[in-house]
Automatic annotation (TrEMBL):
GO MF: L-glutamate N-acetyltransferase activity; L-glutamate N-acetyltransferase activity, acting on acetyl-L-ornithine as donor
Protein name: Arginine biosynthesis bifunctional protein ArgJ
Binding site for substrate: T147, K170, T181, E261, N380, T385
GO cellular component, one term: cytoplasm
Protein family per UniProt: Belongs to the ArgJ family.
Gene: argJ
Biological process according to GO: L-arginine biosynthetic process; ornithine biosynthetic process
Positions annotated as active site in the UniProt record: T181
Catalytic activity: L-glutamate + acetyl-CoA = N-acetyl-L-glutamate + CoA + H(+); N(2)-acetyl-L-ornithine + L-glutamate = N-acetyl-L-glutamate + L-ornithine
NCBIfam families per record: ArgJ, PRK05388.1
Pathway(s) of this molecule: Amino-acid biosynthesis; L-arginine biosynthesis; L-ornithine and N-acetyl-L-glutamate from L-glutamate and N(2)-acetyl-L-ornithine (cyclic): step 1/1; Amino-acid biosynthesis; L-arginine biosynthesis; N(2)-acetyl-L-ornithine from L-glutamate: step 1/4
Highest taxon in the source lineage: Bacteria
Length: 385
């Protein structure tokens, strides 16, 4: 029920020796066609990892035969030699598949600033190629791309006519992307051209993965790759495919959210009554990144004043005395002042919903975040040492 659920795909996840733990750390996903149509979205961080720069070039052609992914090293901020390592990795995959490096995407995740041990990675490609399968390969690949993730993250949907969409993702920290969240590979056996895949992917990620904002930190490596084999022979309507793809991306977003580093609360910030979608997202992100509020939610304190304070830092259209805030269904703030008794708010459940009504228009958006915990600080306090 992962990337090998659609027809035409094989995958593998192996131990290349990149992780000190000795766990799986290299994944390979191969599209056997007949189509190789592909699309992707990448981080908007101006400091981009070498594999992002390489894969951006590959995706300009709209075709991808395979993607190789490694954990245990981000290959970011590694200069020209790091880019050469990415190129060598693509060439290695192309060699074992007897194909072109220009159609091999590369993804990496892990510590920034250190080169990958190519003497381990390249033999790992050979090992992965030898273990490619439609059976357990998808689950092994999903396991291999984990870093601080506690569980593998996969998703699957079947569309009208029998075509399928499968996916895997990783991400537990640095979840504040633009267009993507950490590493995600989506496969489908639907028969759609690259331009249709691109439109569908941007629409789907725009309302799901792009609105996951766990810790306000944008990665250098974020990549969401969509590959279509066309093996089902089904040509779905673009809007139908987009809706199904959005379901898959939404499912992955939820999995990433609940597995975020150190999190004890999964927080949905619903902004309604906005003058525009942009205003709604801007307000949602401001609230999601407010550390005082995130601490309050962790301490199960319904401190709605921190919500209003975050709203007030944005350029969204609103009047302060028309703002309303509900926490888990209790309207603790009405018309910019105290509303129902905050003592009525139950913050014991893991899921928390904060609703903000800007009273300025018909638009809405939801942004997802987590609380700020001592465990998160501990997880990230000595990550490189």
């Amino acid at each position: 029920m992962s990337v090998t659920a659609p027809l035409g795909f094989r995958a593998a996840g192996v131990v290349a020796g990149l992780k000190p733990s000795g766990n799986r750390d290299l994944a390979l996903v191969v599209n056997d066609g007949p189509s190789r149509a592909a699309a992707a979205v990448f981080t908007r961080n101006r400091v981009k990892a070498a594999p992002v720069l390489w894969s951006e070039q590959v995706l300009r052609g709209g075709r991808v035969r395979a993607v190789v992914l490694n954990a245990g090293g981000a290959n970011a901020c590694t200069g020209a030699r790091g880019f050469q390592d990415t190129h060598a990795t693509a060439e290695k995959v192309a060699g074992v598949l007897d194909d072109s490096a220009g159609e091999i995407a590369v993804c990496s995740t892990g510590l920034i600033g250190e080169r990958l041990p190519m003497d381990l990675l390249l033999p790992g490609v050979d090992k992965a190629a030898a273990e490619l399968s439609r059976g357990d390969g998808g689950l092994a690949a999903a396991d291999a791309i984990r870093t601080t993730d506690t569980v593998a993250k996969i998703s699957f949907r079947q569309g009208a006519g029998g075509y399928r969409i499968g996916a895997m993702a990783k991400g537990a920290g640095m979840l504040a992307p633009s267009l993507a969240t950490m590493l995600c590979v989506v496969t489908t056996d639907a028969d759609l051209p690259a331009d249709a895949l691109d439109r569908a992917l941007r629409t789907a990620t725009g309302v799901t993965l792009d609105r996951l904002d766990s810790d306000g930190c944008m990665s250098t490596n974020d990549t969401v790759l969509l590959m279509a084999s066309g093996a089902s022979g089904v040509v779905p309507a673009e809007d139908e495919f987009t809706a199904l793809l959005t379901e898959v991306c939404g499912d992955l977003t939820r999995q990433l959210l609940v597995d975020a580093e150190g999190a004890s609360k999964a927080i949905a910030i619903e902004v309604v009554g906005a003058a525009s979608d942009t205003d709604a997202v801007t307000v949602g992100r401001s609230i999601a990144r407010n550390n005082l509020l995130k601490c309050a939610i962790h301490g199960e304190d319904p401190n709605w004043g921190r919500v209003l304070s975050a709203v007030g830092t944005t350029d969204a259209v609103f009047e302060p005395d028309e703002l309303n805030v509900a926490i888990n269904g209790v309207w603790v703030c009405r018309n910019g002042a105290s509303g129902d008794d905050r003592a009525k708010v139950d913050l014991r459940p893991r899921d928390v919903t904060i609703t903000v009504d800007l009273s300025a228009g018909p638009h809405s958006a939801t942004v997802w975040t987590t609380d700020l915990t001592a465990d998160y600080v501990h997880e990230n306090s000595a990550y490189s040492t």
